[in-house]
Amino acid sequence: MLASGVHIFSGLVQGLPRGTQVAYFIVAADSSGNLTTDPQSAPLQTLSFEYLPIVPGDGDSNGKVNVFDLIALIRVLGSTLTPTWEQSFALDLRHNGKIDIFDLIELLKLLSTNM
């Protein structure tokens, strides 16, 4: 885990299959060697989250790419759907921070290879 700002830390968990349950706790030390944990009762108490990777093109977050994802992307382009963070990440197939007609083309390519 690396410091990425004041009281903000980040880490990368790689290579986990979809649906893997991960438990973690945090131990931090200052320059004097004083330790603290979060939660304070760690490791007796654990916090957990479920790792669910985002599938590129999966606009309805069901884990697969199909015609319903095409509908979701068209709705985003037509401003009838405000995408969640996960949908935005999945539908931004060109990874340029926006969903546009070029992402639609990429999704059509994905769909043609999945058929």
From TrEMBL:
This is Dockerin domain-containing protein. Pfam families: Dockerin_1. It comes from Candidatus Glassbacteria bacterium GWA2_58_10. Gene3D superfamilies: Dockerin domain. One of its GO terms (molecular function) is hydrolase activity, hydrolyzing O-glycosyl compounds. InterPro entries: Dockerin_1_rpt (IPR002105), Dockerin_dom_sf (IPR036439), EF_Hand_1_Ca_BS (IPR018247). One of its GO terms (biological process) is polysaccharide catabolic process.
